[in-house]
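yo, Lipocalin/cytosolic fatty-acid binding domain-containing protein is done. seq:
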Amino acid sequence: MGNVVKPNIVLSMSDGVITMKAQSTFKTSEISFKLNEEFDETTADDRKTKTTFTFENGKLIQKQTWDGKNTVLEREIQDGKLVAKCTMDDIVAVRTYEKEA
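structure:
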């Protein structure tokens, strides 16, 4: 089901707080954060993580740690599209989002 759903990603910023919302017919998730500040996150799949966002070389980098595991999500704009790359150990998944007309 998750591979078929095409969520809308909405990013906004107010007073230094970035809000990222993923909306679909299946589920909506939202997180708010400040760059370079660790916070407790409950992910869309219900993991409890320590999360930090940074902005490096034009990429929004999200680092999550939980239960001795680590994952890194990199988001960047390439050719007008949002490319999200998730890496955990030697596994890499890439998802591309296109702006609606």
